[in-house]
Please model this.
Amino acid sequence: MKNIEAFYNLPSEVVFCKKCVMSNQRPASIPEFKHNRKRDGAKYMQIDVEGICDACHQAEVKDTIEWEDREKELKDLLDKHRRNDGKYDCLVPGSGGKDSVYQAHILKYKYGMHPLLTTWPPILYTDYGYENYKNWIEVGGFDNITYKQNGKVMKLLTRLAIENLFHPFQTFIIGQKNIAPKIAANFGIDLVFYGENEAEYGNPIADNSKSLRDKSYYTMDHIDEMLLAGTPVSEILDNHDVDLVDLNTFLPLPAKDFEKTNMQIHYLGYYLKWIPQEAYYYAVEHINFKARPFRTQGTYSKYNSIDDKIDDLHYYTTYIKYGIGRATYDASQEIRNKHLTREEGQLLVNRFDGEFPDRYFDEIMEYIGMKPERFYELCDEFRSPHLWNKDKGEWKLRHNVNKTGIDD
Amino acid sequence: MKHIRIIPRLDIKGPNLVKGIHLEGLRVLGKPEDFTKLYYEQGADELIYQDTVASLYQRNSLTDIITKTAKNIFIPITVGGGLRTLDDINKVLRAGADKVAINTAAIKNPDFITEASHAFGSSTIVIAIETIKQPDNTYLAYTDNGREYTGIDAISWAKEAQSRGAGEILLTSIGQEGTGNGFDLNLIKRVSNLVTIPIIAHGGAANDSHIYEAINGSGADAVAIASMLHYAAINKIDSIVSNNNNEGNMEFLKKKGSFKMFGKENISEIKNQLNKQDIPLRILN
Amino acid sequence: MDVAIIDYKMSNLFSVQAACEKVGLSSIITSDNNEILDAKICILPGVGAFGEAMKSLRESKLDKAIYEFVETGKPFVGICLGLQLLFDSSEEFGNYSGLGLIKGKVKKFKSHSYNSTKYPVPQISWNKINKTNGSWDDSLLYNNTSGDFMYFVHSFFVIPENESVMLSKTTYGNTEYCSSIQQNNIFACQFHPEKSGEIGLNIYKNLKKRYC
Model:
């Protein structure tokens, strides 16, 4: 067992958290611009000697925080930045999902701020996702700058990200992380609010005791250091019919430009107790948010991340690369929020994890110009041998949370 | 006179009464027995218990709560959620239920409706139909508590359910459910025009006017209401938030908030209003 | 034992027993002829098909138990299908013969429109029981008032030959029908007293007061 190769610097032994259903193979967020195929420098979920993961520890901490004090901190911060001269005083990035609805609405209607919304649109909007996006703006009542990307470049980079990293979602994630500082800089807005702190999910990079987002996510020092789709920028310029101006959209704000502003990028989740399910109820209550009209493939839920057709495929690739499917992500989060028991989480993982998202698959392949066969080939290339093996000609996980893996 | 029925519907997960929107979400509102007691006293005509996660976890767990209720509350109880076999139905009836609501099992195997109605009597078998309105104004039926797409036309399914022996239809609009935006009247009308068994309309009620519309002119014989009653009842019931609860979203109870425009009327107030508008129903003295 | 509740595999017996318990009547659910004969009161509940029910009663010889019990003069209560089975025959799914204890037959409702209202079948609703010509003082309804709401769930109704056995009548759309009867020691009702709230429980309370 110990001699079997583990790709991506993944821990060679698979361990599951005793409280939730997450495993130590879960990747922590890394700045996408440093993301190469081998995932150099990547970190993974820590599970301590008692068998509890960092995210579960973080959830315990969340219960002990004096949220009234945190809210007071928020109010103080907002008081300093609120403008009544007809100009925007804060920026909320999002795509009209339940979380960005909650952030924007509560800042405007409870705390009296004047937010501008900004959207880096999903690669392929679902129709109900698009309805929610419209309602966010029209029913919620906000201005929104939507930065529609060059379609040709978007398709190219998405395809390259799948080929090089098996990461269909990179082009969306990159933009989501970068667009806010750029728009804020453009409009002279100092205060930017993201939602949840990634630490809630066990990322060691983000520091939970601070409300500020780590700069490495959204600024760049030298363009030569940047990778897109796991490839140096210069290589993309050499090998494909794109200009620097095309790629700049996908790159973050240069650090020196950031230094010229007074911008602060905060996590609202530091100030307000974040319960994803309550954000759903809030969004329905205030802007007629609608859940997906059928179960999301690969999981049991209907209202998490439903705007982008490629999102479903993204979770399939995490299942291939790390053995972690969408049901595992969803169930772990709900277990930590005490909506589900671990037993229920296990049942859900058993039933839904790794379900192939065929609903939008053909459409996506056609959109980015990839043959489905090529995708299946890549699945097999990216499977780490320490996680997968063939059982009667079929790929199966060696280990899973129900202890029914081939090697369990 | 046709007397219509006001039926509180309680969605249950484990020990808790939960209330979702679009049949999604596990917000806990308290203990079911506290609510049913209140509703019985206020004049509820029947009760519906729905196990919201039975299909999801392939487990049936309502028998305790059915028995507890049936010992003290003497109105009909309908139970739904994950009933897959004749044995499942028998267990639930023996525990004290009077009717059973079946959805997923019936769609997967329509013969099951015939078998069940022969075994237990037509009037015991309620076929629950959960629908979502499509952009072309047709209605499709869903299974597994609104999770699985079937592609089946809900209106013609209602007719088929009747011909196979169903005694009653429980008709849910998933799009309206939990929103308080009113019933889907078009849906009720279309099914009412096709079937001659009773229809219980469900999904969207926020006030007595909504209920009036569903009955007068749309053809509902009964209404199942949830959010409208539960969000009002929580103000009367002291639900203790236990930190040991791991089975549902307790955040709302902790905050003790209100939700949307729900919570203005209780059952006796609703019935009085409807009575004033000449809707025949049972009034408690 | 106060009450024997006949178990012929045709219904939800739980609520009948729960109602007995609530008013302080001891009860046993049984298909044993001796246990039935020993009880002070016998209840025949029932939901389902007439034909199936008669088949079941005959095969288990429970029809004999019913005849013997009625002979004793002790109070016999029929509920819903239990009312219908007492009659001569039913037109349900062909023609079936009943216990023949009450002269008359069983007929099916037709779904119809009346006064712009649609009346579906089965009738599943609360409805009023109204006095016929007689008084209720000598019956189990002596504590009830004409016009009380009871819970009905049925597709068939009884038509007694002898109108004098009719205790209450009820209207459903264009049909006025017999909702309860009393003939000597037999009381039977189309509605479910154990599902009719506190007003229905009255009937069980009266059983206790009069006979136990």
Q: What stands out?
A: Chains A and C do not touch (no CB pair under 8 Å). The longest strand of chain A covers residues 115-119.
